[in-house]
Amino acid sequence: MATGKRVVSSRLRAGHREGESIRTLISHAQVMRRLKELAAQIRRDFPKEPLHLIGVLKGSVFFLSDLARELGGEVSFDFMAVSSYGKGTDSTGEVKLIKDLDVSIEGKTVIVVEDILDTGLTLKYLLRIFREKKPKHLRIVVLLDKHERRIADVHADYTGFTIPNEFVVGYGLDYDERYRNLPDVCVLHLGTRTKAKSA
Ligand code: IMP
Ligand code: MG
């Protein structure tokens, strides 16, 4: 609609607070390009199979919805919510289940969709639960991999980008529930304040 006024896109307003600053690490365009490649790779491995995506809330919502649209073929999805005990950037390794799956995954080709693989403790916990439910195939796709931080022996089958050990926000990833709506993946600088980790 042409109103004559200059419209400032909400995309340009990062919403950062005093002492916080962000710098783009991976642009939205780069994310979308890489997603097409990941979707093609997954479809090459499972050309005719119905794919059941399981998104880990909340960080994976944009990634899952964009990936689902690139995959083509028969796709269904479900969500799981977990939270990691302990504060700060170092997880205790204890994971609490907040929301379980809605439908059975037995006999299905399941792709777990995660925003970021950090220590790997969350995915290790989830994979144990999922394996017990006897899917036909169980694969993991992560948008980001902070390889240096790994504690648990977990590997993603499909990885968007390997990134350095920095705290990132945007494209679903948050800091204190903020910044998820940034289209780009950005590094967050907090000045002297300490970082908090949330799922
Ligand atoms: P992990 O269990 O240490 O592998 O990390 C699990 C969760 O921690 C991820 O799914 C994210 O929700 C969160 N997380 C880890 N690193 C970051 C980050 O750099 N920014 C935002 N969230 C993060
Ligand atoms: Mg997460």
Multimer state? single chain
Percent in strands:
25-35%
Q: Major β-sheet, in short?
A: 6 strands, mixed
Low-confidence stretches: none
- Helical coverage, percent range: 10-25%
Helix/sheet category: alpha/beta
| Rg measurement, Å | 17 Å
Q: Which whole number gives the mean pLDDT? A: 89
Shape: globular
The strand count comes to: 9
The H-and-E topology, N to C, reads as EHEHEEEHEEEE
Number of helices: 3
Spatial order of the strands forming the largest sheet? 4-3-2-5-6-7
Q: Kindly, what is the distance between the CA atoms of the first and last residues, rounded to a whole number of angstroms? A: 38 Å
Give the cofactors and ligands.
inosinic acid, magnesium ion
Task: Give a written overview of the molecule.
The protein is of the alpha/beta class and 199 residues long. The protein contains 3 helices and 9 strands, in the order βαβαβββαββββ. A 6-stranded mixed beta sheet has the order 4-3-2-5-6-7, sandwiched between helices. Strands 1-9-8 form a 3-stranded antiparallel beta sheet. Strand 5, helix 3 and strand 6 form a beta-alpha-beta unit. Helix 1 packs across helix 2. The longest helix has 18 residues. The mean pLDDT is 89. It binds inosinic acid and magnesium ion. The site of magnesium ion has 4 residues, from loops.
